[in-house]
Specification:
With 388 residues, the chain is α+β, with helices and mostly antiparallel strands. It has 13 helices and 10 strands. Strands 1, 2, 3, 4, 5, 6, 7 and 10 form an 8-stranded mixed sheet that branches. A two-stranded antiparallel sheet has the order 8-9. A hairpin with a 3-residue loop joins β8 and β9. α2 packs across α4, α3 packs across α5 and α9 packs antiparallel against α10. It is elongated, with a radius of gyration of 26 Å. The protein starts with 40 loop residues before the first helix and ends in a 5-residue tail after the last strand.
């Protein structure tokens, strides 16, 4: 949303700040276009259907109507992921209302200006990916012209008209559900610091030999493999109580509040993928410790360590760091050693009692230097058989 009250393309804001020149319409941050003589009327109708309003305002007019400075309006607009549009009359009443709401939260003291921009950015990034997927994958399959001579746009309009309200309701439902779950985790945090810097179990699961596969497989076949991997991983992580942080094609990053849950997920991922002949081998690395969370992502030494352990893990195996191993031992999910487990079983049998039941086994591996993290002691994580 570039300031340009005179229509020059580069403008000076109402506060005297000079904005950068507008981006091209092909910018990766958005492609909202001003009406041009060559614009497809059906495309404009589709935009109006989705936005629910006609284009009425230039960016300057929208900022003025919302009662915000042009500088702040531009910051919100770019944070949401949209390209600068000069002074094209391309904005609607909904854009004005969105600016007014964000600015109102700042004026009321509920959000700082920096936090409001972060809200805009996180929402924009998340919904941009969702929208791209829905158009590229979902609508593409539904809008194949049923009759010769019909354009895809002609078919898309009635489909979108039918789906839009249902998808909108579903999006709000899922968002509320996720918000409730996240709020519950925050409320259970021990203190305010733990809300941002928390102790979590973090795991990376990586497909082995993916680079070689990209050279051998057709693009469509490769896409199907990646989608199957991401879908399977996402379902397993969610079902076992973890949280999928992000997917990176051949790799997924997930987190869990406790080491036992993360360990169960890791082994289940390996077991599931190894039983699927269409899938490459998998390796998983996990670490436990303090993690910084920002905009749904996780950062810090614990995350870096989990990533490094993944790179050195054997095929179809799980490596964990010493802190992760200690946490499993502390919670009674794994014995400190097999010798200890045998002693406990013998003592329990002597007393006529049931021996402790451990879910996992830990085997120390050779210490080794890890780039940027010094010397680490990996542990091989396996599942204990019933009765062991």
């Amino acid at each position: 949303m570039t300031v340009d009250d005179t229509g020059s393309g580069e403008g000076e804001g109402v506060d005297g700040r000079v904005d950068p020149p507008p981006l091209s319409a092909s910018s990766e941050r958005g492609d909202l276009l001003a009406p041009e003589p060559g614009d497809d009327p059906l495309a404009l109708r589709l935009e109006q259907l989705i936005l629910g309003a006609e284009r009425r305002y230039t960016p300057f007019q929208a900022a003025r109507s919302a009662g915000v400075s042009m500088e702040l309006a531009s910051r919100f607009w770019r944070a949401m992921g949209f390209a600068d549009i000069g002074q094209a009359k391309a904005l609607t009443e909904a854009d004005v209302l969105a600016l007014r709401r964000l600015a109102g939260l700042v004026e009321a003291g509920l959000l700082s200006e920096a936090m409001a921009v972060q809200v805009a950015r996180s929402t924009g990034q998340t919904t941009a990916r969702l929208a791209e997927w829905q158009i590229d994958s979902f609508l593409e399959g539904l809008t194949e012209p049923p009759e010769p001579g019909m354009t895809r746009t002609e078919v898309t309009y009635p489909i979108v008209e039918l789906l839009l309200p249902e998808l909108e309701e579903f999006l709000v439902y899922v968002w509320r559900r996720q918000l409730a779950a996240s709020a519950g985790r925050v409320v259970q945090a021990a203190d305010d610091e733990e809300m941002v810097d928390r102790r979590l179990a973090v795991g990376f699961a990586d497909l082995v030999g993916f680079t070689r596969l990209t050279r051998r497989m057709e693009e469509e076949e490769l896409g199907e493999l990646v989608e199957a991997f991401e879908t399977t991983a996402a379902d397993l992580v969610a079902a076992r109580g973890g949280r999928l942080i992000k997917t990176l094609g051949d790799e997924v990053l997930y987190a869990a509040d406790d080491a036992g849950t993360a360990a169960d997920i890791a082994l289940l991922l390996v077991e599931t993928m190894s039983n699927d002949e269409t899938m490459p081998e998998l390796r998983v690395g996990m670490a436990f410790g303090t993690v910084t969370t920002r905009m749904g992502d996780v950062f810090g030494t614990t995350v870096n360590l989990a990533s490094r352990l993944t790179s050195i893990a054997p095929r179809d195996a799980v490596l964990v760091d010493s802190a992760f191993a200690e946490e499993l031992i502390r919670t009674g999910d794994a014995p400190a050693s097999e010798a200890q487990a045998a002693e406990e079983a013998a003592a329990a049998e002597k007393e006529g009692e049931e021996p402790p039941v451990y879910r996992f086994a830990l085997q120390p591996m050779w210490q080794r230097p890890v780039r940027g993290l010094g010397v680490v002691e990996p542990w091989l994580l396996t599942r204990r058989a019933v009765g062991e």
